[in-house]
Every structure is written in structure tokens, then in C-alpha cells.
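Appendix B. One record, verbatim.
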Amino acid sequence: MTLRARNLAGLPHAFSTREPLEPAEILPGAQLVLARQIHSPVTVTVSGSWPGAPPAADALVTATPGLLIGIVTADCAPVLLADHAAGVVGAAHAGWRGAAGGVIANTVAAMEALGARRSRIAAAIGPAIAQESYEVDAAMRDHFAPEADRFFASGTSGRWQFDLPGFVAAALATEGVDTIADLAEDTYAQPERFFSYRRASHRREPTGGRQTSVIGCG
């Protein structure tokens, strides 16, 4: 089973669940391009498959028809973006490090360099860990600027509950993206539907499962 975002209707895209997605079902004949993710704000523009090993990056953008770009996640926020009129799409892996470091701003800027307009970009936030499931410590919170305080709720014993999807949505809005959808699917709380690195770690289970999120220009 795959999930779709209404604000990306008409474009080939999908967010997977625990069940793997088939790229050919999303965009027949397309090649899926992935990067080597490192929890960074690094964004790469793609025009075809990599000639060698994939680069280290956490967001991809393209204006090449017939190409699917994607990212993998297991609690981090997958973000798919598109300017349908310009034929420019993007896919960002927004964990807390990348989100705090500017991966959303870099993705929007890279799309703009390909001809997209910020005011026309639609973005969808896929399955990610929700605030009620995401307890963090003070050291992690210190990586964020004071204006991010509204995304941290008091937790237990001096810890905090972080709203990652909310932070990502605010970052999109700051970059001029007005059309934003959040699928509001908590990966941690739905073991039957999604992989979750944090849940697997807490249960001392294998942590290798990942969701895949993809988008193409058609």
C-alpha cells in the first residue's frame, strides 16, 4: 500500500508503508534515483542516474521528465515538493539535523534554480515520528535557534517532546511555500503500518526497515 498527497495530485509520487513500493507502478519506465543519505542539508540536482556511487546528500531535485527521485526514512520526515507548472520536483529527507541545518531552504532554492517559483510550489510531509512519540534531551534542543521553542513541549525529567513535522512545515512556510500538506501519520505509533528506527531501538529489534518516498516529473 502506498500513500498519496492531495496537493500533489496529477504528479507521479508516493509514500510507502512497510510494504515496498514499485517504481514502475508510480511512473512506468522510470528510473529511481536515490542518494547516500547522511542527515545533512546537502541538496543535489539530478538529470539522470549516477555514473558511479551516489553522492552524499539528503535532498534531490530534478526537472528531467521520466525520472523518479526519492529518499528513505524511518522516523525522519520525508518531504515531496513540486512546481507542477514548471515541471520541477524535489524530495527531501528532513531529520532533525537536516531540518535544523537548512535542508528545506536548500531544496526550495535548488528548485528555484531550475525554474520553479516558490509561490507555486506544493509540498507534502509524509509519515514521520509525531511530537507525542518523539522525546529528546536538552542537548538536542540546543541545536535549534530560540525561535524554534514553540516546537518543543515539556516532557519528563527535563526532557522535551519535539514536533518534527510542525518544524518542517514552518520551514516550508518561511521559504515561501504556501501549499503544504501533512499526512499526519506517526511512524512510531503504528508498528503494523510503518518502520520506526526509534521504536525498533526501544524494543531491541532490527532497525534496518525504511519507508521510501518518491516523486517524478511525469
